[in-house]
Design a protein that fits this description.
This protein is of the alpha+beta class. It is built from four helices and six strands. It has a six-stranded mixed sheet with strand order 2-1-6-5-4-3. It is globular and about 50 Å long. The N and C termini lie far apart (about 45 Å).
Length: about 140
Amino acid sequence: MTQDPDLLAAAKAVVETYLELSMIPDPVAASAYVSPDFELVFTGGRRFSGPAESAAFNAKRYAWVKKRFLRTDPALDAETGDVHVYNTGYLYGQWKDGTAFQTNRYMDKFIVRDGKIVQSDVWNDSAEILLAKAGLAEADL
């Protein structure tokens, strides 16, 4: 199976649209881009079944948060036909205490199948930053 540019572009568009809607946040609109069996796993192994759950979690951690995309790279899995899409960049926003931030690194991995996101894994620096803010970090950031 070769890398189909149209399939890859479509998967990239699905992911970027989902992320844009998630940042509003508009979990209802974002849900249109995920499959019924969607699974989202955040840093630390927190599992969510949809955009509303992750938006509720983010509301507890941040006053507001957005993503500044650096790259979105799709690649076809030749064995399954799924498209793996990697999106990386920086989170920016405001913590619940009112402190602004802008260089919180993130990496998201998505699996797109038949035009819908079936799985997403999210990694970012938020937990480490919060540990440092609380004086619990094991080393300086």
